[in-house]
Specification:
Blueprint lengths: L23 E14 L2 E14 L3 E5 L6 H8 L7 E6 L2 E2 L5 H11 E5 L10 H11 L4 H14 L15 H12 L6 E5 L7 H18 L2 E5 L11 E6 L2 E3 L5
Parallel strand pairs: 3-8, 3-9, 6-7, 7-8
Antiparallel strand pairs: 1-2, 1-4, 4-5, 9-10
Bound molecules: adenosine-5'-triphosphate.
InterPro entries: AAA+_ATPase (IPR003593), ABC_transporter-like_ATP-bd (IPR003439), ABC_transporter-like_CS (IPR017871), ABC_transpr_LolD-like (IPR015854), MacB-like_ATP-bd (IPR017911), P-loop_NTPase (IPR027417)
Keywords: ATP-binding, Nucleotide-binding, Transport
Pfam families: ABC_tran
Length: 249
C-alpha cells in the first residue's frame, strides 16, 4: 500500500537516533515473534527495535498480514514475544508475572478496538462504570466520572442509551471514553476508525489528537486510514517482519 505523508520527519528513525530510555513511553528491543503452523515455524516479526516518545501519536501501517496486530498485541502485553523485550513507562513488561502485567495494563493502557466491544445490555454510562469498577472506582464517584468521560467525547446526552440505539461513531466514542477511564498514559488502538463514516472518523481522530497533545497520552494506532496521517507525529511501516522506512512516499 502506498501512502503519502507530509514530511519525512514522520518516518521512523533508525536505532542510531534512539533517545534515552527515560524519554520513551514504549520501547521494543529485538522483538521477534514466531508462529507455528503444523511442523513449520514462521517468523512474523524479525527482531524489531523501536520506540515511541511520550505524547506522540504513532501510526503503524503495513500490508495485510505484515504483523501489525501481532506487534501491537506484544507492545500491549497481550502476547509474549518469542524473543526480545518490551518496556512501557520504563518498566519491562516482558519480565512481569501475568498478575503484575494484568494490573499494569489495567492501570496504564486504554484499548480501543474496531468492533467497540461494548456490553449490549448496558447503557453508555454503565459500559464505562463497569471499567471504572474494575479499576476500584465505585458508586457515585464512578457514575460522576462516567458522565465526565462521556462529556469529554461529546456524548453526555446519550449516557442512558444502549449501544443498539447509538450510531457506529457514537459507539466508538463510548469505547474511547471507556478506554480513558482511570486516565491511562498509553492508548492503543487497532483500526479505530475503520467502521466509521467520514464525520465520525474525523471526530474520533480529533479526540485522539487532543488526548495526545493536551493530555500527554501516548497514542499507538494500527490503521489503514490515510486521514489519520494528518495528526500523526510518526508513521512506522511494517513489512516482511521488519520496520521499513521506505515504502512510504
Ligand atoms: N495466533 C496465530 N497463530 C498463527 N499465525 C498467526 C496467529 N496470529 C496471526 N498469525 C499470522 O501472522 C501473520 C501476521 O498477522 P497479523 O494479524 O499480526 O497481521 P496484520 O498486519 O495485523 O494484518 P491485517 O492488516 O490483515 O489485520 C499473518 O500471516 C497471520 O495469519
Amino acid at each position: 500500500m502506498v501512502v503519502s505523508i507530509k514530511s519525512r520527519n514522520q518516518l521512523d528513525r533508525r536505532s542510531s537516533d534512539r533517545k534515552p530510555k527515560q524519554w520513551d513511553t514504549i520501547i521494543a528491543e529485538s522483538v521477534t515473534m514466531e508462529y507455528k503452523s503444523g511442523n513449520q515455524r514462521y517468523q512474523v516479526l524479525k527482531g524489531i527495535d523501536w520506540q515511541i516518545q511520550r505524547g506522540n501519536i504513532q501510526i503503524l501501517m503495513g500490508p495485510s498480514g505484515s504483523g501489525k496486530t501481532t506487534f501491537l498485541s506484544i507492545l500491549a502485553g497481550l502476547l509474549t514475544p518469542s524473543l526480545g523485550n518490551v518496556y512501557l513507562l520504563g518498566e519491562e513488561i516482558t519480565k512481569m508475572s501475568s498478575a503484575k502485567l494484568a494490573r499494569f495494563r489495567r492501570n496504564n493502557i486504554g484499548f480501543i478496538f474496531q468492533h467497540f466491544n461494548l456490553f449490549p445490555a448496558l447503557t453508555a454510562a454503565e459500559n464505562i462504570e463497569v471499567v471504572l469498577n474494575i479499576k476500584g472506582i465505585r458508586g457515585t464517584k464512578a457514575r460522576y466520572q462516567a458522565q465526565e468521560l462521556l462529556e469529554h467525547v461529546g456524548l453526555e446526552m446519550h449516557a442512558n442509551q444502549r449501544p443498539a440505539n447509538l450510531s457506529g461513531g457514537q459507539k466508538q466514542r463510548v469505547a474511547i471514553a471507556r478506554s480513558l477511564a482511570g486516565h491511562p498514559q498509553i492508548i492503543m488502538a487497532d483500526e479505530p476508525t475503520a467502521a466509521l463514516d467520514s464525520t465520525s472518523g474525523h471526530r474520533v481522530i480529533e479526540l485522539l489528537r487532543r488526548l495526545a497533545k493536551e493530555e500527554g497520552c501516548t497514542v499507538l494506532m494500527v490503521t489503514h486510514d490515510p486521514r489519520i496521517l494528518d495528526v500523526a507525529d510518526r508513521v512506522t511501516y511494517l513489512e516482511d517482519g521488519i520496520v521499513k522506512t521506505s515504502g512510504i512516499t
